[in-house]
Amino acid sequence: MFSYLNHAHFILLISICSLLLSSACAFSPSTVLVDLGVITPTPTPDPFFHYRAALQPRSQNDIEALGPLPQYHVTAQLNQEGDILQGVEQVIIPAPGPEVVFRLYPNLANYGGATQVTSAHINGAPVNLEPLADNTAIRLIVPPTADDSLPVLATVNLAFTVNLNSQPGPDPSDYTLFGWDGPVLSLPGFYPTLAARQNGEWVLTRPPAHADVLFNEVALYQVDLTLPRAMVVAASGVALNVIDNPQNDTRTWQISGGPLRDVTLIAGPFQSVSAEAAGATVTSYYLPGHETAGQAVLAHAAASLRLYSDIYGPYPYAELDVVESPLNVRGMEYSGLVLIGEDLYQEQREYLTFLVAHEVGHQWWYAVVGNNPYQHPWLDEGLVEYGAFDYYRGVFGQPAAEELLTGRWQIPFDLAAGGGVDGAIDRPANAFNPTTYELLVYAKAALFFNAVREQLGDEIYQQVMQTYYAENRYRIVTPQTFLATAERVSGQNLNPLAEEWLK
Fold first, then answer.
1. Facing residues of 180 across strands?
2. Cα distances (Å, whole numbers) of residue 119 to 99, 115, 244, 442
3. How confident is residue 85, by pLDDT bands cut at 50, 70 and 90?
4. Residue 30 and residue 281: Cα distance in Å, rounded?
5. What angle, 0 to 180 degrees and rounded to 10, lies between the N-to-C axes of helices 445-456 and 378-396?
6. Would you say the C-alpha torsion 178, 180, 185, 190 has a positive or negative sign?
7. Which of 89, 70, 202 has its CA nearest to residue 138?
8. Per residue in 281-318, is it b (16+ CB within 10 Å) or e — as a string?
9. Is 50 exceeded by the pLDDT of residue 5?
10. Do residues 334 and 216 touch, judged by C-beta distance below 8 A?
11. E-state strands within 171-279
């Protein structure tokens, strides 16, 4: 989620372009012609060609390893006035059940936008839309096949519009997660998104304002987004192509990637600087006049990516974008994309180091290894908070790491606990208020992971984290997943620690 600091903390289808993209192919060694002993390979379409572009070479087989995944193709265009996105979406769903449910994230109060799905078809047949959860989701019934069985694949086609929230709140401390804020347009979860399922139930929780919003299974994505030509787009995945449309002074950005937990785009008058780190291209996007801070962000993001790749396991994606955003002193994580509040590029530069290290950590704990942020928010937030301890130790030395642990987590928690503000960490997000969320989900959870490390020792703790990451890439985990992994790898009983800190 956004990490609080100071503890307060494109309907225009581009059919030609899409056809060109989908006709790309790779070559297999199949023999179709032998001429004087020369084997000519047969061009064989690779259905995952576009998605692999977003993965580092060592991770490009991850798609097959996961089995069939949903495939999105979203096409959207911003209207001339800039207040409405009009779009169409096709989602291919393997082995659908009798119904499919899509979340409409902009309709949540956290985002303040408004999405309307205007038509829906499944395998070419029109279907009715049933609103769920105060219109923050829709249910579609899957038509059976001729023999009354369920289809092997469901191809869902949706048309939708999104009204963008362009009115920031009156409080100067307000921040913008979705829509316009000045010249910057933030688009997390703007498209209808397949709801996650847990224990056979669709997860349709409406999170409180202090909690994370997106909770998705991984999928494969192609997004064609048309915006004014002057806007620069940073996004999850990779931009395969950028097409100028001189007839209306727009550009179409063709984004692709997977497996991704989301495709989020942010657009504005950005400048950028890039570097290579841990096999990936790291790009810092910043607003004009903030080059010095943009360079600092790049340095810390690249260093964090290298360090966490060494400690936890390799970063799988080909790119990581870090973007100055209208979040004041907060940050936010998405797949292959990190947002850092604009205040940290200006008067509150002293908090930049920590927040970048925190948010980059979410590429491991959220983007690759996922958990339910409504039910167990501490599981990723505590890990990325405590991961900053390793960053400070690796970059600035042990004393700086100890100072971080004491000043950011131990002292604030002790003071709060002394004043009666304490409680179990492992609770749903809506069981906390903003203060207790910050103190327990962040600080106390970081101290829990420190206690685990102290019991296991550095070497075993690192083995635990590497095993936890390797075994759960692109999946959804629970606290029990972490604890069982830690006990299996270490051979130690962690129940006393879990009772003391989590319960």
1. 185
2. 16, 12, 29, 42
3. very high
4. 34
5. 60
6. positive
7. 202
8. ebbbbbbeebeebbebbbbbbbbbbbbbbebbbbbbbb
9. no
10. no
11. 179-181, 184-187, 193-194, 197-198, 201-202, 219-228, 232-235, 238-245, 250-260, 265-268, 271-277
**May I ask the CATH architecture of the domain 71-268?**
Sandwich (2.60)
Locate 119 and state its tokens: 């038509």
Q: Cis bond leading into 259, ω under 30°?
A: yes
- 211/341 Cα distance (integer angstroms): 17
What DSSP designation does 58 have? G
The amino acid at residue 316 is P
Residue type, 194: L
Segments making up each domain of the chain, as ranges:
71-268, 376-501
Mean pLDDT, residues 50-69: 96
Locate 481 and state its tokens.
Answer: 């997943």
Q: List, for residues 212-264, the tens digit of each pLDDT value.
A: 999 999 999 999 999 999 999 999 999 999 999 999 999 999 999 999 999 99
pLDDT band (50, 70, 90) for residue 44: low
Dihedral sign for Cα atoms in the order 63, 68, 70, 72: positive
Tokens encoding 288 = 């004009």
Annotation: CATH topology of 376-501: Neutral Protease; domain 2 (1.10.390)
Question: Residue 216: helix, strand or coil by DSSP?
Answer: coil
Across the beta sheet with 130-132, the strand order is: 130-132, 137-141, 99-103, 193-194
Determine the pLDDT at residue 172: 47
Find residue 163's DSSP bridge partners: 84, 114
